[in-house]
Amino acid sequence: MRRIFPLNDADQLPLWRRPIALLFLMAMGMPVAFSIWSALLNNFVVEVANFQGDDIGLLHTVREIPGFLAIGVILILMVVREQVLGLSALLLLGVSTAVTAWFPTLGGILMITTFSSIGFHYFETVNQSLQLQWIDKAKAPQTLGWLMSAGSAATLVAYVLVVMTWKSFELSFNTVYLMSGGFTALVAIYCMVAFPQFEAPNPQIKKFILRRRYGLYYALQFMAGARRQIFVVFAGFMMVERFGFEVHEVTSLYLVTLIANMLIAPVLGKIVHLWGERRALVFEYTGLICVFLAYGGVYWFGWGVAIAATLYVVDHIFFGLALALKTYFQKIADPADIAPTAAVAFTINHIAAVFLPVLLGLLWLYSPFAVFILAACMAFVSLCLSLLIPRHPMAGHETIFTRPVAAPAE
Length: 410
Known about the structure:
The chain is globular. It has 15 helices and two strands. A two-stranded parallel sheet has the order 1-2. By secondary structure, the protein is an all-alpha fold.
């Protein structure tokens, strides 16, 4: 049994064994498998499995079902520690990604995607919880920005390798999936062995909770999940279907996006720290409305590939400001609520993901323009919700309609 180490005493450990080091390793390990899977996915399903728009919609609906069931994390945490569950999920993601190309049919792809999705969504649920428990509130925006940057840097290396070697060495989908998934699996195994089990000072509630005062956070999570599906499912698919991008071209686009994120993510963290969550989210959603309307213009007005690629990069940058949702919740939450609420919020985030991709996949067959206009409408709803966040949110002051309880007079 591994040693339980109090979080408050972590400064006694060497830097490479502290909680922040573990968070950085997990931040770098997960996106290598997930990003390479995503980068190759559209080419893989079109070239190998002959997917159409309805097939890709079905795939992403199946992929999001484990996210919808992320609330099951609470049940697992009754018998398994958060850190153990997170690293086990990371290992499952790595192994599932590694063997993706072994299942080149619709049924096979749906099956292996389900396993990798369980790993990804359960890891992300636990990872977000650990970040909010282990990172000091005053440093959270900047630290979360650096964690995003670290993940982008790790994925950047993977993308560079794919771009430089895909054609030169005539790599196969199987080779790239094995290497990227294998890397993530090795990171998970190393973290299991090298780090003690950290014990946060606030024991987490291990039951399902829904609190009325978190209502705005739940609503923002729901809308974030809905509009994210349109980008994740159809933005990359558009580059392959409409503009004929090959694997190295799609990966090059992802590469540019990663470089931008790696450089800008720490700046985004500082922006959230200086502006506050309300102004940061208003800026994000306003930008996303413009981006999605412009995506519609690509189809309606026949704008070229350069504009579409630019929009893809800008889209990713705006999504980086979503870290403001994490810090907003950290400020309003009871410390004991973080783990169960992270699971509940992840499920709420994926409610739309269960049905939206397949429905929009059918709509895509008739009007890609309508799909992106719908996304702009969703971003507008998120903008309206973000205006309800107070300038200085805290427990008891979760929205502009509530006021913090005044401290008793001395």
